[in-house]
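Researcher: Here's a chain I'd like modeled. Treat it as a single chain, no partners, no ligands.
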Amino acid sequence: MLIAVISDIHDNLACLEKCLTWCKQNHIAQIICCGDISNTETVNYLAQNFLGEIFIVAGNNELYEEKDLMRFSHIHFGGDISINEIDGLNIGLCHQPEKIKKVQELAPFNLDFIFYGHTHKPDLKKEGSTIIANPGTLGGVFTPATFAVLDTGKKNLELKRLTDL
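Model: Modeled as a single isolated chain. Structure tokens:
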């Protein structure tokens, strides 16, 4: 299964639209969002234009309310921290890198991946058997617009730059 990992949209609907178009063309089954979607309009656009499951954690610049997310049955909102089993992989989510340790502490099992955002800089490292990754900013704020694609079957993560699509 292919999963798009996005973060820090910051209401950039043009970048979100380009990403979602690419996701449809490339058979992306689910989306993980590591926060900073920003307002209700952007939440609605994401939910109405991607019908696969969407896993979201809150960022530090959210202007929507939780009820805005709960209107959509395919959105799974985890609050500040979320731990999920997705296609046989144990995946932790948070927005700020300072919360990674808390994700590790709260997980009742070893995590295959932890995804986070906030810094707007793509990052990839391995701690033990866990891959910790930041997909960068989809909104292209301060750095080029990027997202990642996780192939759950291969346990492979690939960074995508929006300008290269």
